[in-house]
Amino acid sequence: MRHLLSAADLSLAATTEILDLAEEMAQVQARPVKKLPALRGRTVVNLFFEDSTRTRSSFELAGKWLSADVINVSAKGSSVSKGESLRDTVLTVAAMGVDALVIRHSASGAPGQAAQWTDAHVLNAGDGTHEHPTQALLDAFTLRRHFRRTEPDRETFAGKVVVIAGDVTHSRVARSNLLLLRTLGAEVVLVAPPTLMPAGVESWPAATSNDLDEVLPEADAVMMLRVQRERMSGGYFPTAREYTVGYGLTRDRLTLLKPGAAICHPGPMNRGLEISADAADAANSLILDQVAAGVAVRMSVLYQLLGGEDAPTPIRGEA
Amino acid sequence: MTEPGPTSARLVLDGDQIARACARMAHQILEANRGAEGLVVLGIPTRGVALAERLARAMSEVEGVEIPVGALDVTLYRDDLRRHPTRAVGRSRLPVSVDDAVVVLVDDVLFSGRTVRAALDALGDLGRPRAVRLAVLVDRGHRELPIRADHVGKNLPTRADERVRVRLREVDGVNDVTISSEEATSGATAPPAEEKGER
């Protein structure tokens, strides 16, 4: 694997390998010395054009615990704020001899574009409303552990129903999760108000519904999506209160879930909007497990990309 | 039930001989340690783990106490990661803390010593054992590092270009150790079974 740009790049075998290795990496998280020498001498740059706490810090920890050198470049306080283009920023950073670029950008496709400009490995850490593959991997990791509590030998998600509910239109988490969950064999139901259901969703490999109450009893896991006010120009729903009544995981809706059905949220949560405090803090909420899985899963991905010999690198000409 | 290897492969140890070597090593480890006190047996995947379990079982039978046994994967500590495509990482499991324990590392073949070097580094990150011992089924020589085994099932003089293959029932379905020359096995139909001590 050279880049990780989309969850669609991951076969079932590749996904399983990443998740299995993440289990090993999670053991490292519990040790007194949280350090492995596997990426000594490698350099990873976190290039974040959009705000992030958990993704950036977990990529940073993942790189550091594998002994890579990690630096963070954020758009604020960098030459980007002076008007430098994405291409120039990528070429500038790559020219310093880095091995991997972890890119978050508000424009869908930016990491894919960057991958064509540089020989470094590129990891998509969230691009616009397109994809967020490492989030899907850590969600899969968390769910697999959850399912294995009752079925220790479970390898795939065959026969499991996962409901992804909320602002599907603006959600890169929903897109990556849908792709990866399908690869793992789960059935996926997307739930959103009609205004937040993307155009062309009929062609996606998922069932859709506008009625959360109707689908919750089927769910083995429910992933609540964040209402992304920063990507909305308004008019998607009348009021926050009305959104909660229709599509929030409220205390009343918890009673519709099967016993033991998992509750997930990629964070950061708008408590009281898409998810109630009762749901977020419920016994079967995996939200903190998701955060904890972030570092282990990203260590696994970094090792898969950077752990082996360098691919023979062509002399870079002007693209 | 030994299935014949490649025609030029020479049998070094059969199943009974492997069993006897393990029994002897188990006694030697207990004798050197004056009992089972503090022993933790850690195998290096893949075949080292099967051997570690055999040794721990044999020692438990002699001493009448359960001896903790686990697996220590060393892939992430290897010094040749960048010379190969990304290597698959095996499973590690530590039954107990290694702090102040006498850790017995177990592998099937001791060759360059680089795997053991990686294992020592890995152990150092897991805790501080009181002592570390090394037990191997076959010592084939050609060390590249100042490392030696404390307990050896069979010393086997080899040429550097020969290939030693250990097969264990738990992993391969049969128990034997064979030696063959490189030419004879290159392009052989046998799966590229984990070659131990790659240079």
How is this structure best described in words?
The complex is a heterodimer of chains A (319) and B (199). Chain A is an alpha/beta fold and 319 residues long. Chain A is 37% helix and 14% strand. Chain A contains eleven helices and nine strands. Chain A has helices spanning 12-29, 54-65, 86-95, 110-117, 133-150, 172-183, 212-215, 240-247, 251-254, 277-280, 287-306; strands at residues 43-48, 69-74, 100-105, 121-127, 161-165, 187-191, 207-209, 221-224, 262-264. In chain A, helix 1 (12-29) packs across helix 11 (287-306) and helix 5 (133-150) packs across helix 6 (172-183). Chain B has 199 residues and is of the alpha/beta class. Chain B has five helices and eight strands, in the order E-H-E-H-E-E-H-E-E-E-H-E-H. Chain B has helices spanning 15-33, 47-63, 114-126, 169-172, 182-185; strands at residues 10-13, 39-43, 69-71, 102-110, 131-139, 151-155, 162-167, 176-181. In chain B, helix 1 (15-33) packs across helix 2 (47-63). The longest helix of chain B is centred in the first third of the chain and has 19 residues, at 15-33. Chain B is globular and about 45 Å long. Chain A binds chain B through residues 17, 21, 24, 27, 31-33, 35-38, 66, 303-305, 307-310, and chain B through 73, 75-77, 81-89, 91-92, 121, 124-127.
Class from helix and strand fractions of chain A: alpha/beta
Q: Please, what is the CATH homologous superfamily of the largest domain in chain A? A: Aspartate/ornithine carbamoyltransferase
Radius of gyration of chain B: 16 Å
> Distance between the terminal alpha carbons of chain B, to the nearest Å?
32 Å
Query: How many discrete structural domains of chain A?
Result: 2
Q: Low-confidence stretches of chain A at least 5 residues in length (pLDDT < 50)?
A: 314-319
Q: Order of helices and strands of chain B, N to C?
A: EHEHEEHEEEHEH
SSE succession of chain A = HEHEHEHEHEHEEHEHHEHH
pLDDT averaged over residues of chain A: 93
Judging by the overall fold, what is the CATH architecture of the largest domain in chain A? 3-Layer(aba) Sandwich
Strand percentage of chain A, roughly? 5-15%
Number of helices of chain B: 5
Number of strand segments of chain A:
9
Q: Please give the order of strands in the largest beta sheet of chain B.
A: 3-2-4-5-6
Number of strands of chain B: 8
CATH class of the largest domain in chain A: Alpha Beta
Could you please say which CATH topology of the largest domain in chain A applies here?
Rossmann fold
Portion in beta strands of chain B: 15-25%
Mean pLDDT of chain B comes to: 90
